[in-house]
Amino acid sequence: MRDRWRAVGVLAAALFAVNVVARVITKLGFDGNDTAADRVSLGMFIVVGLVLAGVVFAWGRVVPAARWGTDVAAAVTVALLLTVLVGPLLVGTNPFGGGAGLFFAQIWLYLAAAAAGVAIGYLVLIALGRDHRSRQLQRYAERNVGKPRRVVRR
After folding, report:
1. Taking 70 as the threshold, does the pLDDT of residue 40 lie above it?
2. Helix (H) / strand (E) containing 134
3. Residue 12: Cβ within 10 Å count
């Protein structure tokens, strides 16, 4: 159980680190340039989606979907809260300084990027037949193919 929460914490920290790097790049390199800041933010959302797609692809091969789904949901929730509430403080801005519209837009964009990454990772995993359920069914079919059906006489 302890290893499970460690993996969730590492994933949340990695997702938050991606956001911190994007915020620092925006603050140091593109302060005042909204177009460049938007491009860095888009890149951050793409990286978050790719990280989640990779994690889902790796975890989905060995763990049932119900387990990795809750782990990924917990990690995304923690990373989202850190990103929205703590991330702006690290670069010297107020989390609510842009107003409610910007605050909730960050939440929706982060959730959309996370959902897209999870969906892409899981769909690729299923398409390749490498998910946990497909592998279980394959092992079942291989195990039971050699046994003929037993005839019962009455």
Report:
1. yes
2. helix 132-144
3. 21
- State both tokens at 116: 């897209």
pLDDT in tens, 51-107: 999 999 999 988 888 898 999 999 999 999 999 998 888 877 787 887 888 889 889
The neighbour count for residue 105, using CB atoms within 10 Å, is: 12
Taking phi first (over 0 means left), then psi (-120 to 50 degrees means alpha), and beta for anything else, what does residue 99 get? left
Which pLDDT belongs to residue 1? 65
Among positive and negative, which fits the CA dihedral 71, 41, 14, 133? Answer: positive
**0.90 surpassed by pTM:** no
Q: Which residue has the tokens 């291989």?
A: 142
Q: Which residue in this structure is represented by tokens 């990027």?
A: 113
What residue has token string 């949340």? 12
**Residue 72 DSSP SS3:** helix
Average pLDDT, the chain: 87
Rounded CA-CA distance 76/82 in Å is 10
Which run of H or of E encompasses 64?
Answer: none
**Gap between the Cα atoms of 7 and 34, Å rounded:** 35
